[in-house]
Amino acid sequence: xxxxxxxxxxxxxxxxxxxxxxxxxxxxxxxxxxxxxxxxxxxxxxxxxxxxxxxxxxxxxxxxxxxxxxxxxxxxxxxxxxxxxxxxxxxxxxxxxxxxxxxxxxxxxxxxxxxxxxxxxxxxxxxxxxxxxxxxxxxxxxxxxxxxxxxxxxxxxxxxxxxxxxxxxxxxxxxxxxxxxxxxxxxxxxxxxxxxxxxxxxxxxxxxxxxxxxxxxxxxxxxxxxxxxxxxxxxxxxxxxxxxxxxxxxxxxxxxxxxxxxxxxxxxxxxxxxxxxxxxxxxxxxxxxx
Length: 290
Ligand code: SAM
Prior knowledge:
Elements: H1 6-16, E1 28-29, H2 32-41, E2 49-53, H3 59-67, E3 70-75, H4 81-87, E4 94-98, H5 106-112, E5 115-116, E6 119-120, E7 124-129, H6 132-144, E8 151-157, H7 158-165, H8 175-183, E9 184-192, E10 197-198, E11 205-212, H9 223-235, H10 241-245, H11 253-263, H12 276-289
Parallel strand pairs: 2-3, 2-7, 3-4, 7-8
Antiparallel strand pairs: 1-10, 5-6, 8-11, 9-11
Helix pairs in contact: 2-3, 9-12, 11-12
The protein binds S-adenosylmethionine.
S-adenosylmethionine binds near residues 26, 56, 59 and 75.
């Protein structure tokens, strides 16, 4: 069965009386090339465990199962479960879980899957083509919870992918770029124009792979201070850092100026020009100041 074919999607919908849910972001991939590229660039090894978020009718799930030791697919829509059971029935290495990924304990799932068929599980690869409105919360939840995965290969609204990838000085560089780049290195996988989906969404997508860093790129005295500085700095993008940071931890403008001088950062600079290292220097100095 060609799961990526629009006629298969229609036939399954009819036979199972399935209605697509707009609110669950159900736009299914119908392009074999992009499916192959996503799977290839996910670097899935034969001993790996893949956790797929939002399998839909199972196009990526089936392709991932060809490469992986095991695939666990987490799908929120219970109406898709009978369809998935049918489309994936040939595979004995796929487990389908009917739940909301935001309420699912991924660490617990990994804990229960330390072995695949009696052998130590290799890498942990996360995969997902998700509704746009939950992509950022899911990425941040996985990173902040420190789910011990190697990578997350994910389809995103192009504009959000641009924000995640962008470098200091760019218009799209912001708190999301700094947060994701603190935890991961970011690789571009593929462009996915809206024509590749059924039904067609309003915007184009991009697939990126986040390789989770084994070691942090900067030394921090306090992660909490780092994220507080990033949040305050970008909270008022148009302001200079001196103004944007005044009030943080109860510091006066003069005290913030002193912190910035001690961190070696010119007080007229704006958050969007600061590198990870400079945010770290600022956070470490602020932390020792209050
Ligand atoms: N992976 C399929 C594909 O590429 O064709 C389907 C992608 S579709 C954009 C998103 C899928 O995520 C849908 O099947 C939807 O029901 C599911 N989904 C939406 N919110 C979810 C959540 N919170 N937890 C798990 N799955 C979710």
